[in-house]
Amino acid sequence: MTVLALLDGTIVDHTAPLLRVDDLAVQRGDGVFETIMVIDGRPRELGPHLDRLARSAALLDMPPPDLAAWERCGRIVIDAWQGGREMALKLVYSRGVEGAGPTAFAMGMPVGPETIRKRTEGIAVITLDRGYAADLQERAPWLLLGAKTLSYAVNMAALRHAERNDAQEVIFTATDGTVLEGPTSTVVIAQGRTLRTPPANSGILPGTTQHALFRAAEAAGWTTRVEPIRVEELWDADGLWLVSSVRLITRVLTLDGKAFPEEEQRAALHREITELFESQYA
Asked: Which family does it belong to (predicted)?
């Protein structure tokens, strides 16, 4: 099932027309969004997601979102949900029809079986050159690097390219050979008892799930670092994951067609990291 609510809390039929054809979300992908994992009626990292929605809107020079209204709207969708334990809550904030103001709605959707399969079984990943330097965000802020916009055509094209090359996911790289992010995820590696992830100032989206994982890891005595990671370091790492709100902690099984060594140790580390992450929501 799907539950759809407008920002004022009105639940509407998700199969009925909602957006005008001249809405700038349709015409230009001009807007922002967030997707939040909800388990047993409890949204995960709701505050950080709302903060990131506001940050993305500011980068696009959109009116500041009413975060209290978004929280109420999300709660209405959650309370109306009659599906399984898991739900993906998507918040969409478009610039709307030119001159008429923004369009805003929240939608609760089932978590698909393919997403769950990737989460439980792991994924094959390829690296792709994103075509820009790691410092481009500072030099060209108008490119909106680090904003979660509705303009996801390039990200989806990357995933289709991965499928054509017998993979399910992508890790983007910068022209200087450093790691960026996945099309819909954040890269995390383990080296000993240290977790590392690339910095947001390299033009990537700050990861809410990555932040939650690091918070749990630090509480358990791990060291965490936000710093540049070179592509070759992915091979030297004891564990490699793509983490995201709905797919959660997803283990990378192969990279550019090659399997990692020491599979049993990596599988054990994955179980430890996953349990550590989940323990904070028990």
From this structure: Belongs to the class-IV pyridoxal-phosphate-dependent aminotransferase family.
